[in-house]
Design goal:
The protein is mainly α. Helix content is 41%, strand content 10%. It has helices at 2-9, 14-65, 78-88, and strands at 104-106, 115-117, 125-128, 142-146, 163-164.
Length: 173
């Protein structure tokens, strides 16, 4: 009898194995969730940094040309992004204001004209002061916008994941 009891205590029961597998599955899920959140945060920070880089390039452009690149009345900002890429690469005056290694590009609408892309590989949106809905337009301003990790335009509402170069708390500034 003693021999049978010692043989039985050396192995794992099916219930013990299932408990261990369940614990490992839960821990794996938590780790993957944390990694996913860290990647998203990293891409958001990189997009913010790219917007800062573009702001500096736009300041230099505006100094040379006394205005910002046009967005041609594009309410979506996609044509504006195409223009922004083209105008900031111009080699006249003090240009080019950006180089290909500074930014990512995409051709989201497949028209052969590249747009500046955010870190989520979606086109950044650009609006010249004449084309965004702030009436009357502020002289010599612009807006840069990424739709963030979800890819949806939330109109830069407070709490949205949109990444913008203006304060979401004060949209009319």
């Amino acid at each position: 009898m003693n021999n049978a009891a010692s043989t039985r205590s050396r192995g794992f029961t099916l219930v013990e194995m299932l408990v261990v597998i369940s614990i490992l599955t839960i821990l794996g899920g938590l780790v993957l969730t944390a990694i996913s959140a860290a990647r998203r945060t990293s891409k958001e920070r990189a997009t913010e940094a790219m917007i800062k880089l573009l702001e500096a390039a736009l300041m230099r452009y505006e100094t040379d040309w006394q205005d910002y690149p046009p967005s041609e009345g594009d309410g979506e900002g996609l044509r504006g992004s195409e223009n922004l890429y083209m105008y900031l690469r111009i080699e006249k005056k003090e240009g080019p204001y950006i180089t290909g290694k500074d930014i990512k590009v995409t051709d989201s609408n497949k028209n052969g004209q590249m747009e500046i892309a955010d870190e989520f590989n979606r086109p950044l949106r650009y609006f010249n002061h004449r084309d965004y809905a702030n009436k009357p337009p502020n002289k010599r301003t612009y807006r840069l916008m990424s739709f963030g990790s979800d890819g949806n335009n939330d109109d830069a509402a407070v709490g949205s994941d949109d990444i913008v170069n203006w304060s979401k708390d004060r949209p009319n500034e």
